[in-house]
Amino acid sequence: MKKIFLVLFILIYTVSFGQSAKEMLKEIQGKWSLDDNNNVTVVRIIEVPNMSKNEIYQRALNYFTYNYVNGSSAIQTQDKEAGVIVGKSLYNNVHKGINIFTMNVNATYILRIDAKEGKARAMVTLLQYEKKIVSRNTAPSYTTTNIAQEYPINPNGANKTIMAKAFYKTFKKANVTLENLEKTIKEGSTSKDIENSDW
User: Fold this and answer.
1) Which domains does the chain have, with CATH numbers?
2) Which tens digit of pLDDT belongs to each residue from 94-108?
């Protein structure tokens, strides 16, 4: 009898969470694309009509200075003349999924900014998941996989509910990154009052 209840609980848990994962994926459908390397990319154009290319570049660089503060973050490319900055970082603790095991998921991403007169293009490219898998009586195992190899990009990927939620949450973090970058470019890194004050 206990086994029947356990099986029913697992089935109900899986179905109910599977539906919410499907709703999550539906919410973000069409808001990302795959680049030529099969990596998930989210793009935002930031319009700042009265700002020079150099000022946009400097404010974008300030974004990295204020936000890339741990060992997993680094600027990869910094080309003022071209107006390009590329950084690589990690979204920690994107999702914790529980099945017959526990999976903790982090996501590696690249942030690229291209500055022009009056506007910038910002791209977040989602590269890899770093997964820590813990089963009841075994030591944790660690794996790294390309995000495109996992569900939902790969419809045949394993652990569909866990990976769908990990993808949704990673996408949401990418959008927060783009929102914060846009705010930094438009308003500065601290505040207009502080940055424009006489000193």
Assistant:
1) 31-183 (3.30.530.80)
2) 999 888 889 999 999
